[in-house]
């Protein structure tokens, strides 16, 4: 997919969804893993450190062979998107994400004409520091750690070439998606202890049966 294509077209071409990334992302794809980041840890600082360490380790492994990545930021129901976009993009830069977001495309809900979402994207080279900034923004969102900003959108990281998605939705967990099983098999094998127990049976059925 050419990087100058619109964000919605790129998502549809690579992942088969014409209205951006669906949520919950894990349940919308056959090849998907859902990880438990914070676990049972209650102390805020310790919980954050565990969550960010797990997310970083998985991201490093998932994108080890990636070149260009894209941050995709959905912003829901804001009638002053320009002002808010300037605010959250500025905060994201303070967190260390220096890539620039392009304008936006809007999607609407079929059953509610008042509900919409603006989709922003930023292409960037596979730089661990930029990935870490996105992970920090998502994971710190609901925790009492700084720096953070509650008004930041929850940001996806995608490799459109290899058709991979990584989405840390908060300190509780993270979804990892591929359009084929092969890219996720080593992630499942290496980080299986961190899989979310609630959905483990589904993941085991798909990824643990390859020797059967």
Q: How would you describe what is shown here?
A:
With 212 residues, the protein is an alpha+beta fold. The protein has one domain. It is 33% helix and 23% strand. The protein has 6 helices and 7 strands; from the N terminus they run αβαβαββαβββαα. The protein has helices spanning 7-15, 44-62, 81-94, 128-140, 185-191, 200-207; strands spanning 32-36, 68-76, 105-109, 112-125, 156-159, 164-168, 173-178. Strand 6 and strand 7 (173-178) form a beta hairpin. Helix 2 (44-62) runs antiparallel to helix 4. The protein is globular and about 45 Å long. The termini are far apart.
What descriptive keywords fit this protein?
212 residues, alpha+beta, seven-stranded antiparallel sheet, 7 strands, globular
C-alpha Rg, in Å?
17 Å
Q: Could you name the ranges where pLDDT drops below 50 across 5 or more consecutive residues?
A: none
Q: Which sequence of SSEs, written as H and E, runs from N to C?
A: HEHEHEEHEEEHH
Shape: globular
Which structural class matches the secondary elements?
alpha+beta
Number of domains: 1
- DSSP helix count? 6
Distance between the termini: 35 Å
Order of neighbouring strands in the sheet with most strands: 1-7-6-5-2-4-3
What's the β-strand tally?
Answer: 7
Mean pLDDT: 92
Provide the helix percentage. 25-40%
**Major β-sheet profile:** 7 strands, antiparallel
Range of strand content: 15-25%
